[in-house]
Amino acid sequence: MLLDRLNRPIEDLRISVTDRCNFRCTYCMPHEKFGHKYQFTPKENLLSFEEIEKITNILVKHGVRKIRITGGEPLLRNNIDALISKISRLKNINDISLTTNGFLLPVMAKKLRDSGLHRLTISLDSLDDEVLKSMTGRNITAQSILSGISAAEQAGFTQIKINTVIQRNVNDHSIIDIAKHFKNRGHIVRFIEYMDVGNLNDWGKSKVFTADEIFNTINAVMPLKKLTPNYKSEVALRYQYTDQSAEIGIIASVTKPFCGNCSRLRLSPEGKLFTCLFASSGTDIRSILRDTSGKGNLESAIKNMWSNRSDRYSEIRNKTLNKSPRKKIEMFQIGG
Ligand code: SAM
Ligand code: SF4
Ligand code: SF4
């Protein structure tokens, strides 16, 4: 089994299929920095579906069992369902999921289901239109995302996960609304601490509404009890309402880091592999894939990369915060 320097296996591959997005979330692609002139990855530099399949096949050989398709907004990548069909046919893949902002689901949900996608995660930060508009940086109503969720239900997706990033004094007052809305609908809301991914979102510790605060806010109104993790590398702390109506998750990357069990590898749209969400650089495998000299060896590059991995950024975040800021990959380039 391929293990990194901290004895962690490689199990989970997140494939970002585009760096483009139809939203401009303030914490991910603030519109002041991603205006009309921003240069996204040109089409010829994007990995083709065949190239993604080839890389995935090698990674499956070394332990990957779960795939998440992400972005940018993955539903903006042309024929994304064709990639999902290819991946769903690979042997030993137990789980294929996709994270989306939900806006295009009314037209895409059925295609995604038919292509073999197992699970969907849909991001929704507030049910208050004014808050949602300011957080998404676009004229997005809560109803447009709820319509996407309904389309996903109609297409046959169950136990949909709802991702809600909480920022202090921005949408912390939306926690109860969201929790109540989804409580009896069979979906799992995952409240996420605002993370210092990348260098563009003006993150500060004071903006983090912590996991404990999220728990206390919900527990005061709708009592919760803890659940055990489903598997070792699960990122969300699991809770269930004491009336057993639903489960929720809290992702506490800032205040309760989970690097010890991190088995996730991320592939960027232009073919770089990143061993951590907060990495400064990635391993360029597109150049090996497209090298016609026959000198490059994709499999040994991948093995080398993982066996040299020692990332544990969230565990050492506090020690690095006061030092000069280092360059980090942006969230829209590698997905969540
Ligand atoms: N566009 C899709 C979406 O929004 O669901 C997929 C990509 S998005 C980068 C994946 C997830 O990362 C979303 O749920 C988003 O809310 C979350 N996210 C983005 N920036 C974040 C940050 N700074 N802290 C915490 N979560 C973040
Ligand atoms: Fe787009 Fe998702 Fe980033 Fe929002 S979080 S800007 S929807 S990629
Ligand atoms: Fe994994 Fe890096 Fe996040 Fe730690 S900080 S859990 S190593 S992605």
Question: Could you name the CATH topology?
Answer: TIM Barrel
Widest β-sheet, arrangement of strands: 7-8-9-6-5-4-3-2-1-10-11-12
Globally, the shape reads globular
Treating each run of at least 4 consecutive H or I residues as one helix, how many helices? 11
Instruction: Tell me what the CATH architecture is.
Output: Alpha-Beta Barrel
Tell me the name of the CATH homologous superfamily: Aldolase class I
Distance between the termini: 26 Å
Largest sheet descriptor? 12 strands, mixed
Mean pLDDT metric: 95
- Estimated structural class: alpha/beta
User: Count of DSSP E strands?
Assistant: 12
Give the DSSP E fraction (strand runs of 2 or more residues). 15-25%
Could you give a short description of this structure?
The chain is of the alpha/beta class. It has helices at 49-61, 80-88, 105-114, 129-136, 142-155, 175-183, 211-221, 286-289, 298-307, 313-321, 331-334; strands spanning 12-16, 66-70, 95-100, 119-123, 161-166, 188-193, 224-226, 237-241, 247-251, 264-267, 272-274, 283-284. The chain is built from eleven helices and twelve strands.
